[in-house]
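Hi W.,

Here's what went into the run:
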Amino acid sequence: MFKAYGFGGIPIYTGNDKVSRLWNLNGLKEPNVKRTEGVLQSYQKAIHGTKLAGPSYFAGLLNKIRSEIHENITTNGLDGNRIYSLLIIMTDGYCHDMTTTKKILVEMSGMPFSAVVVGVGNSDFADMEVLDADE
Amino acid sequence: MDMRPSLVDYLKQGWKMDVSIAIDFTLSNMEITDYRSLHRMNQGEMNQYEKAIFEVCNVMMPYA
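Here's what came out:
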């Protein structure tokens, strides 16, 4: 099972008329979809019903995952929590809230969490290079 | 040396993985009707995002 989200567009198909920083790609109350096919189906539904917009903010995504981790720990206890959260961001590479994003990533560095950026297309990935603080 | 446990260490200990996929719907990807769009919809052909979803999710599915 995956959780699938969209960000940075106006998801008209969900009844929205403003830019959303994060919405459930399936248009339902819960973001859960089954298997690769479920992610592809909800993407195809979304792309036909969404107006592409911006800006490209990552903080909303990270805060959502962070609150889920807090919920897991509250439910299961710090020692009982055995859920590792992986966020895979598929993007053309622009990030318009770099300062906030960096701050949240640093704050989350001790959590059972990884963020992975999958670059799509051939545009400028300079922002992503900065976020990848390997060096 | 960084002694913090890695993702693999967590998985070896039997942790479950919660996998979230977030897709970029900003206009810098170009309108879906534009032939340059990364979200372009062509019948019978996967666009750049569909290819990325397909490849990544297939790799992650055993863990997710």
